[in-house]
Amino acid sequence: MNEDIFQARWLVRGILAKHAPDIVSDGAILVRGGVIVDSGDLAAMRRLAPLAKVRHYPRHMILPGFVNAHHHVGLTPLQLGSQDEPLELWWTTRMAARSVNFYLDTLYSAFEMLASGITTVQHIQGWLPGPLENIQPIASRTLDAYRDIGMRASYSFAIRQQNRLVYQDDDTFCASLPPELGNELRDYLRAQAIPFDDNFALFDALQRTKGSERIKIQLAPGNLHWVSDEQMSAISTKAVAAGVPMHMHLLETPYQMEYARRRTGTTAVKHLDRLGVLGPTFTMGHGVWLSEDDIGIVKQSGSCVCHNCSSNFRLRSGTAPLNRFHAHGVPVGIGLDEAGINDDRDMLQEMRLILRVHRSPGMDDGVPSCSDVLRMATEHGAATTGWGVSIGTLYPGKIFDAVMIDYEQATYPYQDDDIPPLDAIIQRAKLPAVSAVFVGGEIVYENGKFTKIDRDAILAEIAEQLALPRSKQELQMRGLSQKLVPHVRSFYDGYIRAT
Asked: Which of 46, 190, 306, 469 could disulfide-pair with 69, CB 3.0 to 4.6 Å?
């Protein structure tokens, strides 16, 4: 069994409190078989393992590997032709996207994630045409990509059984359209429909064939409008029986808040609480439109929230009440969703964005600290995945997922010592400062190179495929999308005002 000692200028083991990172200066950490044995000074680690290989990072800070707690696709929607639009309209524009090989597509975003220190991703896949025999190979190839590059992936297939395009029954909305367009949309939506139980069959098959030390399979009811109450309860029952978490988009936009009111007569959170599905293994993605009462319920239930700051900005969803989440003690992870504010998957940038966005006026301490956002990107993000407490910090018994950031490169030419080193890293480090990334003790990225996959060859293959003209089916889907946009916009005209 391999033994390694990693020694650095600073070792960040975790976050103790809002302004209290657990940092060891000139620290060292002993790793055996990918699991942390102990940490402290180098001499102490050498006494514990005199034959261990010592890896020196004298300019660096070692941090827990970051967790992207909400992710969907590889090439971004903008790359594939969709401008940023309000979410409900944007879904329609996404129908026009080019088809991309799923293995290559997954690697594309994995390159970006690893290069910014992300070691674990919560991959929520969906919007695929049935039947199950078509979906399962796509899911398998997606997971193969993470396996081959060396990342950790917690995977779920988004369960969508109704209201697939707008917040209305599929057939009812299709019937409201001009007949030819309605028939065309109906055919498209029916192609995406699979029997409800097939979602569980997919989950079982992937657990059996793909589950591993670095691949976990969990469940994802897509959103409140995409499942019935009976289906939501059945998914929760299945998750409990299988011992896996659930991740659910919820209250991303004001239109979703209004949908919940119309359907349930209360808030989405109160409704889910009455169904008995909230709890420590339940994560709600976005949560932009939670009320103060909702946040209290989330805290009491032990549920998590995933904050997708860039996505919320880009799709005009709103600004999540992060400061209130923190005030209530709700665990909050960070998700890059389809893409960050710069149309990439840069967790360093996303942490800075979150740090700045929520600086509300005043002199109180109720705004995020650098320690807060790091905890969101590590420990709390980990809590939303199938690994839970086994990752996200660098304490004995935890898996050694870590990122080495070059402090001198990040702060050159000068950084005053009055700024704590972690604060300087969070606020100043860019991608070139990420020197190495380890997953389970294995180095998967070092000095700009991926150790297991040839990035340039993969990007060249993607470029070659997408250089071809649009296929007949792609042209048809682009035409359908363009014809639907005004009708979808019309559907939501006055939707929120109609109370």
From this structure: 306
How far is the C-alpha of 6 from the C-alpha of 51, rounded, in Å? 13
List the domain range (segments joined by +) for residue 15.
Answer: 3-64+398-447
Q: Which pLDDT does position 133 carry in this prediction?
A: 96
Question: Is 206 in the same domain as 83?
Answer: yes
Tokens (6 digits) for 211: 């589950």
The tens digit of pLDDT for each residue in 147-178 reads 999 999 999 999 999 999 999 999 999 999 99
Element (H, E) at 249: strand 246-250
Containing 41, the helix (H) or strand (E) segment is: strand 35-41
Check which CATH number belongs to the domain holding 307 and give it: 3.20.20.140
Q: Are residues 106 and 32 in the same domain?
A: no
pLDDT single digits (tens) 99-114? 999 999 999 999 999 9
Q: What is the pLDDT of residues 441-487, one digit of tens each?
A: 999 999 999 999 999 999 999 999 999 999 999 999 999 999 999 99
Q: What is the C-alpha to C-alpha distance for residues 393 and 496, in angstroms, rounded to an integer?
A: 43
Contact call for residues 113 and 74 (beta carbons, < 8 A): no
SS3 493: coil
Q: Which two tokens stand for residue 340?
A: 């960050």
- Chain segment 268-304, per-residue pLDDT in tens: 999 999 999 999 999 999 999 999 999 999 999 999 9
DSSP 307-370: E-HHHHHHTT-----HHHHHHHT--EEE--BT--TTSS--HHHHHHHHHHHT--SSSSS-S--H
Say whether both 109 and 23 belong to one domain: no
- Rounded alpha-carbon distances, angstroms, from residue 318 to 202, 243, 309, 365: 34, 33, 9, 23
Q: Is 219 helix (H, G, I), strand (E, B) or coil?
A: strand
Q: 443 and 156 in contact (C-beta within 8 Å)? A: no
pLDDT value at position 499? 45
Specify the 3-state DSSP secondary structure of 153.
strand
Average pLDDT, the chain: 97
Nearest-angstrom CA–CA distance, 390 and 413: 37
Rounded distance between C-alpha atoms, residue 186 and residue 386, angstroms: 36
Q: How far apart are CA 120 and CA 66, in angstroms?
A: 7
pLDDT confidence band for 252 (50 / 70 / 90): very high
